[in-house]
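Design job #97: recover the sequence.
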């Protein structure tokens, strides 16, 4: 097992915002998750696809991937094709760009013992391009001011800045399951300025377990998120409203509450899950006990059940038309469109409140309809 970085690039968003969380998380075991395991498999497949596409020697890992499926195959193929496009673009200004895959980079000049592994680095005269694959489909990841990507870039500069005349840093997040390709560019001077000031200061605090706790979206991947007192205090601030009737709150108060609700419900779920796991391990919480939850009946052998029911002349199977997504996979996109396009509709989605920065068009409310009608009078 490789050495683990206390201040890793992948967790930089957390320890930069909440420096003492770095040492706090050290006391927790890394239990992993199905999402992490799936992501690891996807990265292995992406590496293979890219190496093969570039004519490098590579071993197909597919038979050893627990989470492999057709979607992962499609995502990895798309990633390799995207990187090849970037390589070809680099060749327009540089005859011999370098492509590094799963490259370990060291940024310890700014972050003590700091290192990480970049998915893909493309180095050409003038431009350093970092491409990072994200398999997750829960949260859209942006390349803009992304500290993980910026640390990878610093590590790459340590190796190649003296060989290539690099002025521009281009950072790309390739996240196919969210249809997200996020690209951000910055000047090398700006990256080094950030590294010499904010990064160095926060990294020193984090490495020493110092600084102040701060709660935010970065808590999502913190091992101490369920027990953190600072996170609890921030979420319990909602008690200032004393659970008044919503009709008695003004618009600013409602807006404030809306901005906290997702974090509040996530925190409550984390605490509940943590308490359950602790109780299963033997912890007793005052006023609470562990009991067996509800369960549903199930067959122990579906084949035997089907045979038994068929023996008395009754069809044991449920028959229904495949769903739209499953049907498209069965027929293929072009044949699906040819056969079924006249029978497909996409109903209007239900209204939902999101932040103003959301990319979706604003819902036309009854109030807006009334105002538009009056505009024509």
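Job complete. Output follows.
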């Amino acid at each position: 097992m490789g050495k683990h970085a206390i201040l890793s690039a992948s967790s930089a968003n957390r320890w930069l915002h909440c420096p003492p969380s770095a040492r706090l998380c050290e006391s927790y075991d890394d239990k992993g998750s199905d999402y992490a395991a799936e992501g690891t498999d996807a990265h292995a497949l992406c590496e293979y696809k890219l190496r093969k596409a570039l004519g490098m020697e590579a071993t197909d890992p597919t038979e050893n991937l627990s989470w492999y499926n057709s979607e992962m195959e499609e995502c990895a193929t798309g990633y390799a094709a995207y990187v090849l496009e970037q390589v070809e673009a680099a060749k327009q200004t540089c005859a011999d760009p370098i492509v590094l895959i799963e490259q370990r980079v060291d940024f310890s000049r700014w972050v003590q013992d700091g290192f990480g592994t970049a998915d893909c680095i493309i180095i050409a005269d003038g431009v350093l391009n970092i491409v990072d694959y994200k398999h997750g489909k829960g949260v859209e990841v942006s390349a803009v001011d992304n500290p993980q990507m910026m640390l990878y870039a610093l590590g790459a500069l340590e190796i190649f800045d003296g060989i290539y005349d690099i002025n521009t840093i281009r950072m790309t997040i390739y996240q196919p399951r969210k249809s997200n390709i996020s690209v951000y560019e910055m000047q090398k001077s700006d990256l080094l300025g950030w590294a010499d000031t904010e990064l160095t200061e926060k990294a020193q605090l984090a490495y020493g377990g110092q600084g102040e706790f701060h709660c935010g979206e970065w808590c999502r991947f913190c091992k101490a998120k369920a027990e953190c007192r600072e996170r609890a205090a921030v979420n319990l601030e909602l008690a200032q409203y004393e659970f008044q009737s919503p009709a008695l709150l003004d618009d600013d108060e409602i807006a404030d509450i809306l901005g906290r609700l997702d974090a509040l419900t996530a925190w409550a779920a984390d605490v509940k899950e943590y308490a359950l796991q602790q109780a299963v391990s033997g912890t007793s919480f005052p006023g609470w006990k562990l009991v067996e939850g509800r369960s549903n009946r199930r067959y122990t052998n579906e084949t035997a059940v089907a045979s038994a029911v068929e023996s008395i002349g009754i069809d044991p199977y449920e028959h229904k038309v495949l769903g739209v997504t499953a049907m498209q996979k069965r027929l293929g996109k072009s044949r699906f469109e040819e056969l079924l396009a006249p029978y497909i509709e996409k109903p209007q989605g239900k209204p939902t409140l999101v932040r103003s920065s959301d990319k979706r068009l604003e819902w036309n409310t009854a109030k807006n309809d009334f105002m538009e009608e009056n505009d024509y009078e």
